[in-house]
Amino acid sequence: MVVEKNKELHVPIESEIFQKLEDIKEYHGIKNNTEIIRFLITKEYREIQKNE
């Protein structure tokens, strides 16, 4: 895997979505938004791979 440096993603989110992210982080013990994004992408990717 190639790690690209200085890649950033800035996405404004509505308060309802922000609260959902906070709830997911708390449930899974995830500490920050970067980790939650990695977690959700990996989870979705695994689901896609199962279906192919």
List strands and helices in order, with pairings:
Blueprint: H1 15-28, H2 33-51
What does this structure look like?
- With 52 residues, the chain is an all-alpha fold.
- The longest helix has 19 residues.
Q: In terms of structural class, how would the helical and strand content be classed?
A: mainly alpha
Q: Rg to the nearest angstrom?
A: 13 Å
Helix content: 55-70%
Order of helices and strands: HH
User: What shape does the CA trace take?
Assistant: globular
Largest sheet geometry? none
Summarize the structure.
This protein has helices at 15-28, 33-51. It is an all-alpha fold and 52 residues long. It starts with 14 loop residues before the first helix and ends with a helix.
Output the keywords.
single chain
